[in-house]
## 1
Amino acid sequence: MNKVFQEALFRKNILTYPDDSKGENWFETLYSLAQLFGIRIVSGDKTKLTNESIKIAQEQLRIYVPPAFYRGFPGSVRTLNVDALLFDQLYHYAQTYGTGDFSTPGHSIFEEEYERAPFCEKYRPRKFRVMSESEGVQLLLQDAAAMLKQTRPISDTDLDVLAEAICEYGLPAKTVASKNTAIRLMIRFRTTNYLSMFNLSDILKIVDELIYIWYPHIYLKSKADKKDPLKLLNLRNRDRKWITSLIDRKFEQGGPTINVTECFERKDLWCGLLHHLHYKPKNASARAFVNAMRGNKNYSTYSAMEDALKKHGATTALEVLRHGKGSGAVLRSLNYLISRCKSEEEIEHILSEIDTANNEVILVQLLYAYDLMVRNGTIKPRVFRYIKHNLMATHTETQDEWKARKSFLTQKLAARALDKVKARLKQLWHGRFGKVYIDPFMKQVAWPISENAGEAGVGVLPKGSKLPLDIRKTVRAFTYWERVDDIDLSCMGLTEEGGSIEFSWRTMAERQSPAITFSGDETSGYTGGSEYYDINIPEFKKEWPDVRYVIVSDNVFSMVPFSGVFCRAGFMLREEPNSGEIYEPKTVQTSFTINSATTFVHLFGIDLKEGTFVWLNTASGICTPVAGELNHAYLTDFFSRTEAFSVYDFFAWAATEIVDDPKEADVVVSDDLTICEGKESFHSYDFAKLAALLS
């Protein structure tokens, strides 16, 4: 089995053995897995395991991790005064950034020898199941088939699994539900197989993705110049020919997908692309299209909608938008249309669109949006989030934009819309499953609606998912890396009023305490560096009583994208922080590889009031070398996500009956592998299977 599939199965708590395995060293393998990684096998034939399982576990959880700047962390750090900490840092910078020497790891010149107590604290074992390689392949092929069915974009890691399933195992992939996934498969395989599912206007999306993947220098220049990448075209000849063939084939296919009206929305970009391609139309419809794009008139649907809004009101504008862009566009423009209504009758007519809507993905997105409006209020600057190229970008309304905004919704109106969305989803889902057993833990697992901007690894949950924290333990955040000079782990404390306090390499010399301790800024880690934070929640709350949330992030100070280096991050729960090694695999709660094409990633947050750990796992489209220069406040929206809608809610609404005994259930929703055997089951980490349930 190839490495991509082995890692994907390990993320599902599955170890495999060769189909012809005789398991000569199975007992030694079991012992090593338990002693080194805290892995306990709870189902499957463990007598067929081989030493290969140890190698896979070691790659995913590691045994040896590069030492931190202060090797005696955290005990030795707390004995140093501010002057020593600061001098250590400045001396280290002089040796690295000052002289350009990153060849050897630099460590403290003040730290004394530190002897650790043996590691002897209790930990929660990881429960794994065992299956043959052929069974594992079949399981992942089912996952890959679910990826083809889901309408939401998938992560880079999932795309690798899907590509392997298609290429190596012959997974039929004639249809793809997500245009984003189809585009990336087309570019990866240089195929035109999925072209029939696209409108002519979507060709620009294909070109944009092609630039991002194969022409990063153009993409980076476009960001620096604040221009659309399509305005900086300089494609190779083979790519010009491929794009030209896509346009020609669209006009050969003909039909309703040749919607020239949609192309008017980006008319100037079409003109630039056609000029760059030296495009020569081959039939009458293609010639008409080229002439329209090069002409002076603009017939876009949104222009027609605005005209209808001014002349006839929101109801007519809705029909214009539906006719030109479809019902999905109407749902996405719901708030805009509602805010333009001049009567209660108009508002009710616009809201009635929800009562007949069938796009479950957009309805769930609206559910989250309206819940935030009800929870946080509607008369304040909005935060816009969007994901492009699997990176999240945000924009917070400026004061001028906020004052000029016309699309205000009252909290009462948002609550009314929220009730309608919930009622419609319950109506659409009711009876989809028979008897269902749902583990109460699933109330803390958010629905995977935007996981394409996240990373994959052991213990990863959907954004906004929560884990209860044992406040008797210390949360130890970690990151380690190779092939780059300097990666920085940082913490930001946020108050409920929006204030912030920075805990990072540039502030920690004066803030080291029993509440929060930093392992020192490791800047010579090209061949292996690591950084850690220890956060003692009770002590932190005493020292920083105004801080409600802590946001932990990772960024490359050297400004090299994570995709060009090796980097892992995660967190441990430690009862005795001074015992054992700094990095103890058995206490690792999560560990994942960061490989996004960005220099900044939000890892997780801690709600100090509730005592919960909250998954953020978001690759940011903003590149900055210092965490404190960003506004992290928008991330607190994820802290209430499970209260709005969770995995538990979906199955509760979709079940004919919720049962207390898993044996009576047709479907089991739980991470407890022992009660899932022989049943159709869903786990918190089954992102693809869960996402594919929404039409």
## 2
Amino acid sequence: MEGVFVGIDVGGTHTDGVAVAEGRIIHKVKVPTRSDDLRGCTLAALGALLEELSPAAVSRVVLSTTLVTNAVVQGDLDPTGTLLCAGPGINPALHAPGGETRVVPGAVDHRGREITPLDEAAVIDAVAGFRAAGVRAVAVVGKFSVRNPTHELRIAELVGEGFDAVCLGHTLSGSLNFPRRVATAYLAAGISRHHRAFVGAMAAALKEFGVDAPLYLLRADGGTQLAQSFRNPAEAALSGPAASVMGVEALGRVDQETLALDIGGTTTDIALFSAGAPLLEPRGATIGAHRTQIRALFTRSTGAGGDSVVRVENDRLLVGPQRLGPPACLGGIHPTPTDALVALGRVLGDEEAAALSLEPLARVLGVTVEQTARQVLRELAASIAAAARGFVAEVNAQPVYTIHELLRGHRVAPVRAVAVGGPARALAPYIEEALDLPVHVPNHFDVANAVGAALARVNLEVNLIADTARGFVSIPEADLYRKVPSGYSLAEAEAEALDALASLAERQGLLDPDATREVTERESFRVIQGYSAAGSIHYLRAQIRPGILGKAV
């Protein structure tokens, strides 16, 4: 690793920043997060880091931001119109993701053959309706467009200019799943303007700070991509949980099956490592109410963190899931697990204020403040442990994928846990008891997310489908759709997929000489017409593997 790598993670409570040089964390900072000013708190963290660094030494800046997730949850997407064409079958309007949705006649089948010509007049009419309704962004999705994108491409031409964004479903994912591709394109279009504004502001700020280094964003699958080359800005959603997973990998051992627990102020994020790699969502990320095709690490969040409100209901002590402001020891008015830690002397803070906040609970429970504090921490740990066990059960109820491979028939059984996040070290003994597993807390646990962002590798994925009976090959993510001869082989398909991956990476400025290009899935079968073979269908998935650039100490 050459130069200084800067990572900044915008969390729900704090924005963390780190500077890593030659595998060592040379500086780290924390600033409060303001959900109404993500740019401001990001710049505050960057400015604090640069007080101790030479801007000329910085060679890489990576951001993990809640911009997309917040926009979806808060309903802050731009007014977005969705144009769908699917042909026979279930009415595609049933998959409408929100906003204005129009269905236009036109369809290709599962092999990419046109079965219904595109009704261009209907497209023009739909676009006029969008303009009248104040639509600012357009998502265009055909059911089998990944097998033949010509209808989507023609619709884009007819939509023309005048919208802030026009997103085509086939360019965002090469996998089949029409409802998820609709949701993915809708989010990509709706967040596009916000994304461009944020990236532009951050790029300008780097120049103002005198930093001449590429700006990357962390994606939901734990990989990074140049901020200005994002085709699908919605891929930056869920980057916070991804940052914690990559941070756990960068700071500790994950060769055994390991639970990753990132204990924040508001929530605890849970993930799993198997075969030395983090698990992936088998179908794609769920962002708010939208089930997408966005590749994401398999994580879940539970509403239990250091700042969760503590209360007694029906003589039972409860922790979370709400966070009603800062802990009492930091000026808040509600007791929290952080107050319990401060009252016990496990972390620094206003011990008097912490104890006072716990006194009403202690009176109701009929115990001392110290006993109440310990009970609060046991309850928090029990809540985290229960969520972790539920997460393992959910993982084992479906196929297990890592960022490297499908683990066929494998059932995960974690033998240890790694805990990171602000209260991790103080809570570790309680979680260890609740989980009945050894819990490791690495150095720099308090800024693990920022470390994960700083050290995450660039990555990409492409899908290839070749139908030699039709004589076409398609790699949607690389904008490739061309004719091939009937003898086009699986080996040729593999070579083309890997070449397309490298070319796409180079176009996006992502080429990493040490990155691993690999085919992760391959399938080939014959096409029979009548009583003889008419050709073959080859399906491949190739990736530049996500990972970390090195360990950090």
